[in-house]
Structures are given as structure tokens and as C-alpha cells.
Amino acid sequence: MNRNLATQKGISAPDFLQAVQQHYHTCQATPDYQAADWAKPEHLENAIAAQLSVIPEQCQSLLDLGCGRGGIYAAVQQRGSNWHYLGIDLMPQNIEICQQRYPQGQWQVGNYWEALAQPEAVDWIVSNGCLFSHTRPQDRERLLTALLAKARLGFSVICLLQRPGQDVQEINASPHLHATPHYWFERSFKRLGDSITATLDHQTGLELDPDNALVVVQHSNMLET
Asked: What is the pTM of this model?
């Protein structure tokens, strides 16, 4: 995961997305796991498995924001799940690779703001490090609201977090240096109250990069159906 992209501050959303795009353009000649900013192949595999493991049984449609080279789609196919899948990525080169590898999948070039603005709802959203990790601090609350509006059941995403043991005062003094600190998530979850069930999980049972955690948010009323 690229921490520098998560720390940029005071630039416009278009410029921020352009910076992300420029970074991933430099990764095109690398293996899949490195192109997605993971240090080891197993970290990418485990991050995908962690996200899919929490998807409710009633899920029928899946939106993959920042689909990269199709790793989540490949895992979905291996599981035998027949979800309606849509993968969206900012990089045209990644979408071309996905179309070549998995022509039966549905793929689009675009960014997550555009995808979340579309009126059609989906059951579940996944994202392997692209959402809160590559979102400016001032945009995170808007993104959380957009995700909850788009996903009928909820979402599971892998995010950068502050390292364990970091001082809370240090984090509060410079929140732009931390992609998705605990205090921000906890504050947002409390604001939403009983309408959601949320977990911020370091202990997925899988070997994730230590700077990352699985965030799972579900609509509470959908858990009862």
C-alpha cells in the first residue's frame, strides 16, 4: 500500500485522483501484488479472502471499487459464487487486462466517486485499499455516506490504519498523516448509531500487512432479513 498517496493534503479532488493515477501508471510493469501496492503475494490474497469471507448469504450483486487486475473477481469465481459483479478501476490498462483475463466479467474505467453517484444500488461493495486509504481526510465522511447509500447490505474494505501504539494526541495533531485512524472511524460509527453494525478488525485470521485492517459495515436492518 502506498502511504504517500494517503497523506496528500489541500489539493482538489480531480488533482488527487490524477496523483493516484500517475502513481499506478508507474506500477504497470510489476506483478499483480506489487501493482496493487502489496509487499507480498500472500498479503494480496489474504486481503481479498478477508473481504469476501464476511459477505452475507443474501448477497446477489457485488461492486468492486478499484478492481485492479481482477483479483477479487478471480476469487469470486473460485468460490463458485454467482453474484452479479462489476469491477471499476481508474487505470484503463488494468481494465484491459481484466477484459483479456476474464471476458465474462463486467468492467468499467472510472473512479469511485463516479461509481457511487450512479443511481443503481448493489448488495455489497468491496475495495482492496483504494477507498479510505486513497481519500483525502476531508472527503472521508462524504465517502462513508455514499457507500452506505449505494450498498443495500453493506461493504467490506481493506484500509490503511495508523500503526499500533501511536499516540492519540499525535494523530489528532496531524490527521492528514494517517489514512484511516481509529478515532475517525469510531466517531463516524457512533454518529450513525444503531443504523449500522460496524467492525474494525485487525484479527482476521489471515496474515495482512500490519498497516492494514478489514473494515466491515452492514445495515443493521438488513441483518434481520
From this structure: 0.78
Place of cell 501484488: 33
Domain total of the chain: 1
Q: Which residues of 185-222 are buried (b: 16+ CB within 10 A; e: fewer)?
A: beebbeebeeebebebeeebeeebbebbbbbbbbbeeb
**DSSP 8-state code for residue 217:** E
Model pLDDT, residue 98: 95
> Torsion over CA of 96, 98, 100 and 102, rounded to 10 degrees?
-160
Name the one residue in this structure whose C-alpha cell is 469476501. 52
Interval 73-121: pLDDT, tens? 999 999 999 999 999 998 899 999 999 999 999 999 998 889 999 999 9
The grid coordinates listed for 209 are 500487512
178: left (phi over 0), alpha (psi -120 to 50) or beta: beta
Sign of CA dihedral 23, 26, 29, 30: negative
Give the domain extent around 123.
Answer: 4-223
Core vs surface per residue 135-144: b (16+ CB within 10 A) or e: bbbeebeebb
Displacement of CA 23 from its chain's centroid (Å): 17
Q: Which residue has the cell 478488525?
A: 201
Whether residue 11 is predicted with pLDDT greater than 50 in this model: the reply is no
pLDDT digits (tens, 9 = 90+) for 132-155: 666 666 677 888 889 999 999 999
The pLDDT value recorded for residue 176 is 41
18: domain CATH number? Answer: 3.40.50.150
